[in-house]
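=== RUN LOG ===
request id: a7f3
mode: sequence -> structure
chains: 1
length: 523
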Amino acid sequence: MKKIHFYRNATIACLLLTALIVACNKDLDKTNPSYITVDNYFKNADELQKGTNAIYSIFHSARLVGREWFFLHDLRSDDVSSGGGQLEVPRAQILNGATTSDNAVMSDVWNGLFVIIHRANTVIGSAANVTDNDALRDQCVGQAKFFRAWAYFELVTLWGPVPLYTATVNGPDGFQPRTAEDAIYAQIVQDLTEAAAVLSPTYPAAEQGRVTSGAANAMLGRVQMQKGDYAAAKEALLKVVNSGVYQLMSDYEDNFLEETEFNAESIFEAVFFDKGDNAFNWGYSGDGSGEAQSTVRNQEYCPLAWRNLIPSNKFLNEFEKTATGATKTDPRYKFTVYETGDRFNNDADVMTDGMQNGNASVVNGVTKKVSWRKFMIIYKQSLSQASFHPGGNNQRIIRYADVLLMLAECENETGNTGAAVGYLNQIRNRPSVQMPNYPTAQFPTGNKDQVTRAIMHERTVELGDEEVRNRDILRWRKKGYYTTDPLSYFRPNRDELLPIPQQEIDNNPMLGEGGISKQNPGY
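=== RESULT ===
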């Protein structure tokens, strides 16, 4: 297994960019000529790349994909339920729809996203100084624009209008008010379009994990679909399909194992490293190369560890099973979850009820212990090894399967139901899955509404616990596809969005200027 190592070269840039974020408001007459500043750094392509690496560093840190990001998205979906009383209060708040403006999980993600934006703006704004390697410079700018777009897409879908920064903030008077969602989406689309035009379609092994043109187009399709522009989404997504770079993996489980990272189905991954110890940056004190480059997802969801979140009953009962009238039980069920009686640790051990901390589930009327399997590393670990060990299994952010399912939705929404069903059946025809083609007795596809239901089902069982469900709910709720809302606590005109963090309200004097309130409705 090979992983990229460009994070290791980001230390100086991380320190520089962090210093910019917390810049002091003192009027000093003298500057230490040996001190690194934006004015005397980023003068060549190598330095610009180190600044770009610093963006990746915060992206996979504990504030974001290493921990709090996957929590925030899952807690806002109906994929998960509480594993039991061990779920911490800030996480339980989000899961139960009782999020407050001082919620620590939410605030950490907000802050991490704006660090990405600040670092991306620094790279983009410094590019004009670099003339020694135009090709590398342009790649760095493309990556920075992708991440700025990714961060703003996260922000606008979770919080709605947010401050829009497209240039580096160099002092304490650079605050911006909340910007309307349309303007934020316009910036996201522009950044992703420009990124896709310059980014490489592939990278050599040592650089795997960097953003590609395929990732930019897939993100652009995701963004346009969330906006409701299905024609534009289809155009971007077809560029991914027609690139010839990606294909579905024969074995569905290969998308979640450490040994099969960077496979043909993976479009974009957050890269992690297993250091072989149990160190993790719980204080979120920094994100340079000296910090652990691992993820604690394996502990948070693992059936043998903390088991803070488990699959919801609703999710578990969505899978087609012969017990409920289907002609075949969907194999993806067993690839997605562990149940009592399943084997782990290279099939050497058998999972018991007692090993799984906390709550039980009800599947087809039967009470049993069920836990998440995706991204867990106990498939090759014993109980003693799995009790606490930050892992190096990469988080897949965008898969080719998601692109095909998005295209199915685009075709259905633009009146091409036959093409939509064709994309759905590509997913079901994966050799390790081989589910009967649509239409089926349970999922007829004779009209748009029926195809919509098939798409909603297929996205649920294919992409469960991959942090896409939250946005699916937002999009389908807006289109009126639910008779009963998936979230039991949902209150219209409030729970579509999270509250603006209190820290931002306290610190940003411009936040409520420009005609948009400081806080979202209902908070």
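=== NOTES ===
Confidence is low (pLDDT under 50) at residues 18-29.
The domain at 6-275+286-291+497-507 is CATH 1.25.40.390 (Serine Threonine Protein Phosphatase 5, Tetratricopeptide repeat).
=== END ===
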